[in-house]
Amino acid sequence: MPLMDHLRELRNRLIKAILGLVAGGIVAWLLFDPIWKFLQKPYTRIPQEHCLGGECDLVVHGIFDGFFVHLKVALIVGAVLSSPIWLYQIWAFVAPGLYKRERRWTYTFMGAAVPLFLAGAALAYLTMDKGLKIFIGLAPGDTKVLVGIQDYLGYAQAMLLIFGLTFELPLFVVMLNLAGVLTHERIRRSRRLIVFGVFVFAAVATPSQDPFTMLALAVPTVVLFEIAEVLAFFHDRRKGRRPDPDAELSDDEASPLDLEAIDAELEGGGRAR
């Protein structure tokens, strides 16, 4: 396709993805109350002695805080609800330029990416209150903690996104191995460095940076990396046993000859003569 046709195709895909996001955001706006109650539950589990009047309620500091909270929740939940739409638009734009084997990898990636992200977000939701309890529990016993609604929403959003995206990293390792970029031997040699890097990343990336949240992110991620290493081992072992019939040839590599077909054609030509 010419460059302008590519740009028009990209524009049309972006418009459809944005319309899907807007539609999902409208649905999330209308369902704000049950969604907000669900997001607020981890905060209600913090120690009651630090809450004003024995009830852990979030505080609205500014006039526009309520509106921006509605808007952020609508965008976040709308992006999740409309994910089949905008993911399909990305796929429809990229797929025509991929080989058949690469499209198969993309199906595998998309089929595993969504469950892994949801698993990470679910783990973040279950551990959010632990970090809150640790830091709010450090407040002196004769004080009351007033947490702003914007601060809590930012904390919850960061936890869900960081956990969800971190759970995708081992999947990239598997995809790089399938593409032949990263071998199992290289992964095995870098295992200690990978484990150390995961713990450092968890200590820096988690919003609360408390030990419990860091371990809650690092330990499952290391387990997923180990699973990715096992999958890479079996893939390289199978690849070493037999050639891949779907592998694409480079420009400098000759295509294999079908000798049986050539012999049959020569015999047929001899009989004809």
TrEMBL record:
It is found in: Cell membrane; Membrane. Keywords: Cell membrane, Membrane, Protein transport, Translocation, Transmembrane, Transmembrane helix, Transport. Its main location: membrane. The Tat system comprises two distinct complexes: a TatABC complex, containing multiple copies of TatA, TatB and TatC subunits, and a separate TatA complex, containing only TatA subunits. Substrates initially bind to the TatABC complex, which probably triggers association of the separate TatA complex to form the active translocon. HAMAP family: TatC. Belongs to the TatC family. Part of the twin-arginine translocation (Tat) system that transports large folded proteins containing a characteristic twin-arginine motif in their signal peptide across membranes. Together with TatB, TatC is part of a receptor directly interacting with Tat signal peptides. This is Sec-independent protein translocase protein TatC.
